[in-house]
Amino acid sequence: QVQLVESGGGSVQAGGSLSLSCGASGRSFSNYVMAWFRPAPGKGRQYVGSISSSGDMTDYVEAVKGRFTISRDNAKNTVYLQMNSLKPEDTAVYLCAARAVSASTYDQWGQGTQVTVSS
After folding, report:
1. Predicted local confidence at residue 3, as pLDDT
2. How far is Cα of residue 99 from the mean position of the Cα atoms in its chain?
């Protein structure tokens, strides 16, 4: 298991940027696929994007492609979410999640960090 703690949230005007971090404690961070989620009204947690255990592959929901970038530093047990060209609809609590490479669902979650984008 890993314990996840997000940081870096805050308030920004539309068009601005924010960078989130998610630090992990526990064993074998490099054996986990990492992802970011955010709540969507009436839809529960919405998948934002993910990064493979080695960091060589990323995936994003269409709404954030070209604006958000996920990266990781396995030596620092940290995954990052760089958010550019932010829109008011990006306002949410952003949650970091982890799943073992062999698992099909994300079962380790952070507590979330608030991102607020004003128009």
Report:
1. 94
2. 13
Closest CA to 97 of 40, 57, 45: 45
Instruction: Give the DSSP H or E segment for 112.
Output: none
Q: Are 112 and 8 in contact (CB under 8 A)?
A: no
Instruction: Enter the tokens of residue 61.
Output: 């929901």
d(CA 17, CA 97): 22
- The DSSP element (H or E) to which 88 belongs, if any, is none
Between CA 55 and CA 114, with CA 18 as vertex, the angle to 5 degrees is 100
Which letter, b or e, does each residue of 20-32 get, where b requires 16 or more Cβ atoms within 10 Å of its Cβ?
A: bbbbbeeeebeeb
Band (1; pLDDT cuts 50, 70, 90):
confident
Which phi and psi angles does 82 have, rounded to 5°?
A: -95, 120
Give the model confidence (pLDDT) of 29-57 as tens digits.
Answer: 999 999 999 998 788 899 999 999 999 99
